Amino acid sequence: MSQPPDRPSNSRPSNTTNKSITKTHAITEPSAGTPFRSPCPIARALDILGDKWTLLVMRDALYFNVRTYADFASQIEHIPTNLLASRLKTLTKQGFLEKVPYQTNPMRYEYVPTDLAKALKPLLREVRKFGEAYFTDA
After folding, report:
1. 107-113 and 97-104 beta bridge pairing
2. Helix, strand, or coil here: 112?
3. pLDDT bucket at 1, cuts 50 / 70 / 90
4. Does 15 have pLDDT greater than 90?
């Protein structure tokens, strides 16, 4: 099991990429009917992942096994509920999370990371390292 992004890790992430994820989960537009703003891969990734909350939602799902709307809403960063609903919907639509029912009466769902989501782990580890190096409490 890999280390959560807020804890130091002694292992280095692999420099390999999973080509099957790229081909299988090709995202052609950030939202319905909205084209990417640029052909640049960094700009395209930021069109989907570059807001204040998305990577934190993915961190919680990938490293802290947060699965339900209520659990995401109760995290320390206190994402506003309207933004949380929007992010979960977008991440589900883009293939990063799968919305799976876990209760039928009343109907409730959990959000499970997909293989595409797991491909974000090296990015999250590097963002954590950057934050530890340059944004400490000193």
Report:
1. antiparallel
2. strand
3. very low
4. no
For position 138, what pLDDT does the model report? Answer: 60
Give the residues across from 109 on adjacent strands: 101
Domains of the chain are 38-133 (1.10.10.10)
The span from the CA of 107 to the CA of 101, in Å, is 7
Average pLDDT, the chain: 84
Q: What are the φ/ψ torsions at residue 133 (nearest 5 degrees)?
A: -75, -35
CB 98 within 8 A of CB 92: yes
Q: What is the pTM of this model?
A: 0.77
- Binning the chain into helix, strand and coil, the percentages to the nearest 5 are 45, 15, 45
